[in-house]
């Protein structure tokens, strides 16, 4: 009762301790000295020595960064798995200690509670030691588990040692208790594959002579290495498992005394002390000890201590009384089998006479008519094993049902309080039933045809083949792509989805070119679509698509599923060609579309300042004049010829770099000239015109898109910004956006003329607002096979950062590169799609021979 009061007082005192909290997720960690946060999370005063992380398997990992002196408690929750990695540091329990005159018990190095599995690796665990104290409190085990829902897995290198005892609180008191290395009453204790685990119990405190009275005092008992009352102790393949019991202590010799000692104390002095027994390597209760054949298990019991030699009492008359010699202690056992079964017969023989050993043969699933998969265990006669602890094999595709005393599964074994007594060699038979699986049949990847439940080792049912209009059933497959056929004769081993494979019926699509070049017919599977063929050709005509009737009332959609034979008819339009007018620097003219063998109309003469127009020519050198009565049979470009007017001023456009937007072309309508300087008689001295009146520009970007047009004899004197914090401009006209806002850029000529453009600096990227093709009329273009034509585009605003992209709808007919160059590959019709940002335009291209 006194000890319990001390423990309660210690607990109450610790509630006032303030330490920094560590929230550990699913598990709570604490030291022997506890405190509580507001949400009842247990925390430790040794947190600096422990880091808490989560691994790739979402498991909490406690890692020691140095040795811990106050012990550790890990509380598992919801069957989680937690890892304690010691990194070869030492985790010590709390030693017996005093505070304000009160004694506090020692603690284990590691206490585990809750429910789940703790993996322990690369650590040294030492139980709390006893220290001389008024209450003679003893030491503690290194590891303590008292929850039947906790399992431990020891990995790599783990060393476990119980706490050491101490001398008594006075010179005449016997020493304190020693401790086992591990006290385990959990679920499973597993020594993992190729691990090295050592568990050691400690010796009791030695027998000694009271120095004041010369009276011999007894030694305390030595402890066992492992106290095991869990479900299963397993030593895996390649593991090295060593357990050592505490060594017994020798008893002290009796003292030689004379008549100075009162008569009633004589025996206390002259009688020798007994030697104490050695500790058992393992104390085993009601459990299963399973050892792999190639595991290395060494159990070392403690050696008993020897009894002391008696002393002699000599009276005043010279007579003597001889004391009693002490008895020798008993050696410990390798395994003290209180109850339970063990797989290693030789190990059991080391502790129990062979005639007292009985076997228990456990039969699992039959491998053949008279052959079971079996395992043999051994125990001491009249002992037993908890029925719930019998090892059950996890057999693929089967569920364990129960144990029976006969192979026909009719007789249940006799139990006494859930304990199976072993009075003779015995056999038990595990009954397993096949797992049930669902086989689902799909007539198509998303439609269930039927489903069946089968019990292993049954095969899938041989159901009636499904039917589908337009298809032929070819069998069942395990994948939606129907690549891997299913063996209907094999046992079903999991929930299985089977998919029907179908062969699709085919139909003919016939192409009637209506006088054009012939095309091959197509075979198309049911609900498939016909491929768009190469466009047919017909002299002087342009192909205008396929129709389902000769009257061309319904065009054919090649995305339409084919469900029957069909004939398609070609529609023809007379061909038209582009007549392009290149004014060679003069005023622009509209291009013309002329039908096959038609003639182009003579356009109005273009104008060019300082020049006179001298006709249209078929070449840039203006050597071959064009005859507007000639029939047009192909695309053609005509070039204006100019003659210079002597002594006449002409506009001169200042050089300017292309804008840094990556566009194909940047033609823009000019603003009206700003004429700021005139002579008194009204004649213009100078004039300047900018190609834009305003431009958006993203912050941080630059442009040279602003162009100036002025007259001969004048030149640009300077570029200026109204707000250089918003936009600045170089002396060559390069504008750079600095800050969101608006600035006016003014251009001044040497003759004093000025023109301005407003720059709107924005945060976001400049997007394309308009996109046009400038050298194709009506968005149609006709090319001869092998010819090329470069599409010219214009975007607004000039500073758009959206690139212009070109794509062909059919690369077998026409190709187009990133600069808009179209090449005619073979006869047919296809479209060029031009896109800039969200703006799109298209050009229909007809390729002829």
From TrEMBL:
Pfam family, one: Big_2
Cell compartment(s), UniProt: Cell envelope
Ranges where the BIG2 domain occurs: 684-759, 772-846
A single cellular component GO annotation: cell envelope
Location (main, coarse): other
Disordered: annotated span: 646-684
Keywords: Signal
Bias kind Polar residues: ranges: 649-684
Protein name per Swiss-Prot or TrEMBL: InlB B-repeat-containing protein
Organism: Roseburia zhanii
């Amino acid at each position: 009762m006194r000890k319990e009061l001390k423990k309660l007082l210690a607990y109450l005192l610790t509630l006032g301790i303030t330490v920094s909290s560590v929230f550990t997720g699913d598990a709570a960690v604490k030291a022997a000295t506890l405190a509580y946060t507001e949400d009842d999370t247990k925390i430790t005063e040794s947190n600096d020595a422990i880091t808490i992380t989560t691994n790739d398997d979402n498991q909490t990992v406690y890692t020691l960064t140095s040795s811990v002196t106050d012990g550790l408690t890990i509380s598992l929750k919801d069957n989680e798995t937690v890892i304690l990695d010691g990194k070869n540091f030492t985790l010590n329990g709390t030693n017996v200690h005093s505070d304000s005159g009160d004694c506090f018990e020692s603690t284990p190095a590691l206490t585990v509670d809750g429910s789940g599995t703790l993996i322990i690796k690369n650590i040294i665990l030492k139980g709390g030691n006893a220290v001389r104290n008024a209450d003679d409190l003893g030491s503690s085990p290194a590891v303590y588990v008292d929850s039947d829902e906790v399992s431990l897995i020891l990995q790599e290198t783990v060393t476990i040692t119980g706490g050491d005892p101490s001398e008594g609180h006075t010179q005449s008191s016997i020493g304190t208790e020693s401790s086992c290395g591990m006290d385990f009453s959990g679920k499973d204790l597993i020594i993992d594959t190729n691990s090295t685990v050592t568990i050691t119990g400690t010796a009791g405190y030695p027998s000694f002579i009271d120095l004041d009275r010369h009276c011999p005092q007894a030694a305390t008992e030595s402890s066992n290495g492992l106290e095991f009352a869990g479900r299963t102790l397993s030593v895996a393949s390649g593991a090295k498992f060593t357990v050592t019991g505490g060594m017994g202590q020798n008893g002290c010799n009796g003292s030689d005394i004379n008549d100075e000692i009162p008569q009633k104390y004589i025996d206390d002095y002259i009688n020798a002390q007994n030697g104490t027994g050695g500790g058992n390597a393992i104390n085993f209760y009601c459990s299963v000890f399973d050892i792999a054949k190639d595991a290395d298990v060494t159990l070392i019991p403690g050696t008993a201590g020897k009894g002391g030699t008696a002393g002699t009492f000599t009276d005043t008359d010279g007579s003597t009384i001889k004391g009693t010699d002490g008895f020798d202690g008993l050696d410990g056992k390798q395994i003290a089998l209180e109850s339970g079964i063990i797989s290693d017969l030789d190990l059991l023989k080391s502790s129990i006479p062979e005639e007292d050993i009985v076997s228990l043969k456990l039969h699992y699933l039959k491998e053949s008519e008279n052959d079971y998969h079996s395992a043999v265990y051994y125990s001491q006669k009249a002992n037993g094993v908890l029925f719930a602890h019998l090892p059950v094999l996890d057999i693929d595709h089967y569920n364990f049902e129960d144990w029976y005393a006969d192979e026909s599964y009719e007789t249940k074994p006799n139990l006494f309080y859930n304990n199976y007594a072993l009075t003779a060699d015995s056999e038990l038979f595990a009954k397993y039933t096949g797992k049930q699986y669902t086989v689902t049949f799909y007539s198509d990847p998303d439609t269930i045809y039927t489903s069946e439940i089968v019990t292993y080792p049954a095969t899938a049912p041989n159901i009636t083949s499904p039917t589908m209009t337009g298809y032929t059933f070819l069998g069942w497959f395990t994948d939606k792509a129907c690549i891997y056929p299913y063996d209907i004769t094999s046992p079903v081993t999991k929930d299985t989805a089977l998919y029907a494979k179908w062969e699709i019926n085919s139909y003919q699509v016939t192409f009637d070119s209506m006088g054009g070049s012939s095309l091959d017919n197509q075979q198309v599977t049911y609900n498939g679509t016909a491929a768009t063929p190469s466009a047919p050709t017909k002299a002087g005509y342009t192909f205008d698509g396929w129709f389902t009737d000769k009257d061309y009332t319904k065009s054919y959609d090649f995305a339409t599923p084919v469900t029957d034979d069909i004939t398609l008819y070609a529609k023809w339009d007379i061909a038209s060609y582009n007549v392009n007018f290149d004014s060679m620097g003069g005023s622009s003219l509209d291009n013309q579309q002329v039908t096959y063998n038609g003639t182009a109309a003579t356009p109005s003469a273009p104008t060019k300042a300082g020049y006179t127009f001298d006709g249209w020519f078929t070449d840039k050198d203006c050597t071959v004049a064009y005859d507007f009565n000639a029939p047009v049979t192909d695309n053609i470009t005509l070039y204006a010829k100019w003659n210079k007017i002597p002594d006449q001023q002409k506009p001169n456009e200042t050089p300017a770099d292309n804008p840094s937007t990556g566009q194909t072309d940047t033609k823009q309508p000019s603003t009206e000239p700003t004429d700021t300087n005139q002579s008194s008689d009204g004649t213009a001295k100078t004039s300047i015109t900018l190609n834009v009146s305003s431009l958006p520009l993203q912050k941080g970007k630059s442009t040279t898109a602003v162009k100036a047009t002025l007259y001969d004899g004048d030149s640009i004197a300077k570029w200026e910004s109204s707000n250089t914090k918003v936009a600045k401009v170089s002396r060559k006209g390069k504008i750079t956006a600095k800050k969101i806002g608006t600035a006016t850029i003014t251009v001044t000529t040497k003759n004093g003329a000025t023109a301005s453009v407003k720059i709107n600096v924005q945060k976001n990227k400049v997007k394309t607002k308009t996109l046009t093709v400038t050298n194709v009329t009506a968005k149609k273009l006709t090319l001869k096979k092998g010819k090329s034509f470069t599409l010219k585009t214009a975007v607004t605003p000039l500073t758009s950062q959206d690139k212009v992209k070109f794509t062909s709808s059919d690369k077998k007919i026409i190709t187009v590169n990133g600069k808009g160059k179209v090449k005619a590959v073979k006869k047919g019709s296809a479209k060029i799609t031009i896109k800039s940002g969200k703006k799109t335009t298209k050009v229909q291209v007809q390729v002829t021979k």
